[in-house]
Amino acid sequence: ILIHVCITPCVLLFQEHHIETKHGPVSVAVYGDHDKHALITYPDVALNHMSCFQGLLFCPEAASLLLHNFCIYHISPPGHELGATPILPNSPVASVDELADQVAEVLDFFGLGSVMCLGVSAGAYILTLFATKYRERVLGLILVSPLCRTPSWTEWFYNKVMSNLLYYYGMCDMVKDCLLQRYFGKRVRGGSAVPESDIMQACRSFLDQRQSMNIWRFIQTINQRHDLTESLKQLQCRTLIFVGENSQFHTEAVHMTAKLDKRYSALVEVQACGSVVTEEQPHAMLIPMEYFLMGYGLFRPSHVSSSPRSPLNPFCISPELLSPESMGVKLKPIKTRANLRV
């Protein structure tokens, strides 16, 4: 099914594929030239590519960087795609390992070898788990407010409350408020004296269209996740982590960075931002991503010195490239794992 999506200054097409896997069907929206390198994305709970990565792709500089170098494969969690129908009640709830295996089946379906991965929160967990299970298939990880440990008591409790509300009342206002608090910082959420931002209003409208029991299933899955801390030491790919200063998962991102190989990973804190940096402050991701991808010989069109279709040949990121001066005033590197000078 071809669907037109307008992204300034050009019009893009994506083709949506519904793929049967051993662990149930999965929807994948594909943007770009299939001959280019593959970028796999996975969104957070109750989101899909239109609500989790649209802001990033509406940022012209980021869009040119990503679409010039990659064909983007947006994987939706089960039942999260546009126009999804309710998953049959007797279908088993997938485990996190089964969702990671599902990603591998998607790669096999499209005949993909090694890929770059971009995930947000719960989606970042699934892609990190995928990277630990299929190390040879992941070239690099770009993770936004990632999860890597079992849920804290606070997260577990919030997830249980949302699960019960979804089960009995559907996508009610309280569930939407919990999800929006998970996604965004206070500045975007507004308050009694400050009206909600356009992003918030658009996200509320989007959540109204979700199938509540499909969201319930993904929350059940992510609330039963296991700790990846020990597995992180076995990762063989370079990793760039973004986390919002006000993200509920800030400590998770710091913990994860501390456990990764300090030579090949970096943590970037985005000021005055919540968890879904791709929507709230996508422009803040541009410079770190650009330097990260330079390590693979990939550039924005205006900087092209080699074909984006040439084999990836990564080298270690220079510490100077992720200095505060290089990142711009809206970014604040913290306790990175690349021996950065701060």
From TrEMBL:
Transmembrane spans: 109-131
Pfam families per UniProt: Ndr
Superkingdom assignment: Eukaryota
InterPro entries: AB_hydrolase_fold, NDRG
Keywords linked to the UniProt accession: Membrane, Transmembrane, Transmembrane helix
UniProt xrefs under Gene3D superfamilies: alpha/beta hydrolase
Family as reported in the entry's similarity comment: Belongs to the NDRG family.
PANTHER family: N-MYC DOWNSTREAM REGULATED
The name this protein goes by in its record: AB hydrolase-1 domain-containing protein
Source organism of this protein record: Aegilops tauschii subsp. strangulata
